[in-house]
Amino acid sequence: MNRRSFLSWGTAGMATLGSAMAVSFGAVVRFMTPSVFYEPPQTFKIGKPLDFAYGAPTFLADEKIYVFRDRDKGFSVASAVCTHLGCTVKFFTNDDQFHCPCHGSIFAESGKVVHGPAPRPLNWFEVTLARDGQLLVDKDKIVPASYRLMV
Amino acid sequence: MNLIREIWQSIVRRDPLSTDKGKSELVFLNVWLHIHPAKVKKEHFKFNHTFYLGFITFFLFLVLVTTGIALMCYYRPYPSVAYQDMKDLQFVVFMGPFLRSMHRWAAHAMVICVFLHMCRVFYTGSYKKPRQFNWVVGVILLLLTLGLSFTGYLLPWDQLAFWAITVGTNIGGYAPFVGNYIRELLLGGHTVGQEALIRFYVLHVAVLPSLVILLTIVHFWRIRKDGGLSRPIWKLKPNKPEELVTIGATPQTAPLQAVAASSDKTYGLMEVVTGKPIFETVAPEEEEDAVFSYPFAFFREAIALMATVTVVMATSLFWHAPLEELANPAKTPNPAKAPWYFLGLQELVSHSALIGGVVAPSLMVLALLVIPYFDRNPSRRPSDRKWAIWLFTIFVVINLVLIVIGTFFRGPGWAFVPPWVHVVAGAE
Q1: Which terminus of chain A has fewer Cβ atoms in its 10 Å neighbourhood, N or C?
Q2: Cβ of A87 and B191 within 8 Å?
Q3: Do B167 and A32 touch (CB under 8 A)?
Q4: CB under 8 Å, gap of 24 or more: what pairs does B114-122 form?
Q5: Are residues A23 and A53 in the same domain?
């Protein structure tokens, strides 16, 4: 084997080995990436509009959302997950603000950050009326804080 | 009796330990012991130089592997039964609380001892040439220890576990570009759930321990190759350092004579390899203050092992590992805290998630990794290294202060609350 063919075969061999390793690494990463999430659906019904009171928002623990109902404007749904590190915020009626227990973030009723390390306002989710008359929340659809469903 | 003696000889294959040959053969005919030299100098085992922290860390790891395997017999990593299994370990399994407590306290102790070991290596300048790379291996082992502790934290599936891991993995999510993807890989989902539990379990019992074992072997091997256990070289009698010979170095007194090679000469590997090795500056073993590893070194190691195990067992007899109520994703405890060794991070994160959670820890790890290559000062004498010692001490103190603030001075809503003030959680 002369120098030229050694170099060309060597380069081809290294390239093959390198791409094989890259593909294998990609396969490992893909293998570890879940194809199915066994998690609660992002779209779910929360009940009839009449189930919700005016005034202070209703907290749904399993869905981690706050449902607001306003006499003039209608329904809106806020995420109860703090945008800082994912703790569940709590709404206090004495100051009408959300407080996060982990790092002290405070959000206004509109979801805006009033204080603390939270980088973004709370998310608001789309809420619509399903055919059976129940409220339908879609956590995949983030809406502006001004979004309202008038029923 | 002859048969028994024969069987024993077939196992140990060495001369009696009363002889020097037997003492040497004990070391180099035994696969487990031959990481030791046959002879050591007493100063390698000076307690007030190393405090045996490396030994203690390794022995704690052995305790963790043993108790961990025992616990695996009763633990199923599935949310609905994991907590139930913890309750079984607490109330039903014979010696369950004892084993679980040993595992928990040894884990905490290992994090502490790894950190102290790192401080000792820094303050004694033991990371300097030729040991630079072993320092890097050590830093990786520190990270793996934290990883083991963090993945183990989730397994009890109580409120403490669930929220510590929720907060901890969300910190990781702030890493630029890949943060959320890595978080998803780690959790196998978007929130801490059953997929996260099985992944943490696999990491905790298989992946990370294997890596720790592999790197520990490298770590120990390198100690032997780099001149043995650290010793206070600047405190030895002034003529001592000159007595060291470097294997392969040309003796100054008698220059090598060229000898005509005979045609039938065979060469050993050490004769084929020429030049001075960059490692292994060793003392000749014939020196008068070198003693056989048996019993001098083995006795001291055995004492350290027994002391370590005794302290862990005694602690576990009197204090049991805590177990909070079942994990409840809907109810965040107030305050929710990460594991204590990450509370310094959490304290930083409470000010800024990106800087505190990603930038600062990355810089810290990077700084640790490059120390041996950045510090060009060859001296190990503390009085020659004032700047290095000051900088490292500031690094240590900042970390400790942040952890103490996060652990003892943060109350509900992460408000600043001194530990002597009792707070009844707000409108809960």
Answers
A1: N
A2: no
A3: no
A4: B114/B57, B114/B141, B114/B142, B114/B145, B115/B142, B116/B51, B116/B53, B117/B53, B117/B54, B117/B57, B118/B142, B118/B368, B119/B392, B119/B396, B120/B50, B120/B51, B120/B53, B121/B230, B122/B371, B122/B388, B122/B392
A5: no
Report the pLDDT value the prediction gives residue B247, as an integer from 0 to 100: 53
Q: Are residues A58 and A111 in the same domain?
A: yes
A62 and A97: one domain? yes
pLDDT grade for B78, boundaries at 50, 70 and 90:
very high
Helices B53-72 and B96-123 pack at an angle, to 10 degrees, of: 150
Q: Distance between CA B201 and CA B185 in Å, rounded?
A: 14
Cα–Cα nearest to A144, from A56, A69, A76, A87: A76
Alpha helices in chain A (DSSP H): 3-32
Number of domains in chain A: 2
Residue-level pLDDT at B427: 40
A-chain residue closest to B189, CA distance:
A37
- Asked, for residue A57, whether it belongs to a domain, the answer is yes
Please name the member of B171, B334, B354 whose beta carbon is closest to the beta carbon of A101: B334
Q: Answer yes or no: do A25 and A2 share one domain.
A: yes
pLDDT of B246 higher than 90: no
Contact A58, A52 (CB under 8 A): yes
Q: What's the CATH fold of domain B25-237+287-339?
A: Cytochrome Bc1 Complex; Chain C (1.20.810)
Domain hosting residue A107, numbered range: 43-143
Pair A61, A85 in one domain: yes
The answer to whether residue A118 sits within a structural domain is: yes
Of A64, A86, A92, the CB nearest to B427: A92
pLDDT of amino acid A73? 84
Q: Are B357 and B364 in contact (CB under 8 A)?
A: no
The H-or-E segment that residue B141 falls in is: helix B132-154
- Residue B366 Cα to chain centre, angstroms: 18
Which residues in chain B are closer than 8 Å to A85, comparing Cβ atoms?
166-167, 170-171, 349, 353
**A25: pLDDT strictly greater than 70:** yes
Which residues of chain A lie closer than 8 angstroms to B196, CB-CB?
Answer: none
Mean per-residue pLDDT of chain B: 87
Q: What is the ipTM of this complex?
A: 0.84
Confidence of residue B305 (pLDDT cuts 50, 70, 90): very high
Q: Which of B205-214, B283-292, B309-318, B352-361 has the lowest mean pLDDT?
A: B283-292
Which residue is closest to A31 within chain B, CA to CA?
B185
Is A58 part of any domain? yes
For residue B348, what pLDDT band results from cuts at 50, 70 and 90?
A: confident
